[in-house]
Amino acid sequence: MELLAKLAKYRYGHFAQEIPGYHIAHKVFDSYGYNIEAIGVDKNGLMIEELKKTKAQIVYITPTHQYPTGATMPIANRLKLIDYMRSINGLIIEDDYDSELAYNNRPIPSLQGLDRGDNVVYLGTFAKALSPSIRVGYMVVPSWMMKLYKESYDAHFARVSLTTQLTLATFMKEGHWDRHIRRIRTLNKKKHQAMKEALKKHLGKSFTIVAQGAGLAILIVPTKKDFDWKRLQTLAENAHIKIYLAKERSGGEFEAVRLGFGGFRLEEIEVAVEAFADVWKSM
Questions:
Q1: Which residues are 214's β-sheet partners?
Q2: Considering just the CA atoms, what is the radius of gyration of the chain in Å?
């Protein structure tokens, strides 16, 4: 992300981002002195008409699984955004951080794949689908950015060892990656369903699911009004349960509890939800 902010600075100075959205992107581009615009999201992801009212030349989006609301940008909106950014010679940063982990919907073509110009940078990572410990990400950049990249990149400061990169390349070349994705998608779909069923069983009608069907978490909100989120955190802490709230890492007004299932074995999920339910019901 830092390298991308550095490269894009040669052309651009105004940056826009979804709000709520990924807090690290805001931090990185702010540290490079960009003027930053916050653009709202709705059920279709980034609000394009709102973007058009700004001076933003770069827009950072998570279109396949919007972070943190879970919205998916329809293909019509993707084409509309590409057309607009091309008309201003702008740049779309498409962060496709967990598209391999979609359980219900058919894949929608990436903006980078739909783009017929040089206006999209595609970001991907192996942290979600393979292992967070290897911390390997990648970029597919426009041709004009490749020259800048080659001039700016210093191999002496690579953050991922060449051994890890070459091992991963071999893993993919030999077909193990495709088999791994099929296996974990099947496993995580079962975990996703198990968590949904456990939530319905132990929380009853006290909650609403606001994001599901992809990734490694389900987001819920309470049905009751005037919910005290800080008290929930305190009660959970007292019960030795760590909870994650959406607003802590995404800004904006969107708030929800992020219930991850990726780190649990299938048989552990109901036990975890039951423990969380004891705290939730005490609110």
A1: 102
A2: 20
- Which residue, among 109, 143, 198, 206, has the nearest Cα to 7 in the 3D structure? 143
**3-state SS assignment for residue 138:** strand
Establish whether the linkage from the previous residue to 68 is cis, with ω within 30° of 0.
yes
Strands 14-19 and 58-61, by their bridges, are: parallel
Size of the chain in residues:
283
What average pLDDT does range 270-276 have in this prediction?
A: 96
Neighbours of 150 (CB within 10 A): 8
Contact predicate 281/206, CB 8 Å: yes
Q: Mean pLDDT across the stretch 246-253?
A: 89
What are the structural domains of the chain?
A: 2-173 (3.40.640.10), 186-281 (3.90.1150.10)
176-195 residue pLDDT tens: 999 999 999 999 999 999 99
Other beta carbons within 10 angstroms of residue 126's beta carbon come to 19
Report which DSSP code applies to 89: T
Checking if the pLDDT of 150 tops 90, the result is: no
Contact yes or no for 58/26 (Cβ under 8 A)? no
Residue among 251, 206, 203, 212 nearest 227 (CA): 206
Residue 157's pLDDT is 63
Beta carbons within 10 angstroms of residue 186's beta carbon: 10
Cβ neighbours of residue 150 closer than 8 Å, sequence gap 6 or more = none
Confidence of residue 106 (pLDDT cuts 50, 70, 90): confident
Contact assessment for residue 94 and residue 111, using Cβ atoms and an 8 Å cutoff: yes
CB 246 within 8 Å of CB 229 = no
3 state SS of 154: coil
Q: Write out the E strands in 76-229.
A: 91-95, 120-125, 137-140, 207-211, 217-222
In the numeric block, which tokens belong to residue 166? Answer: 């070459």
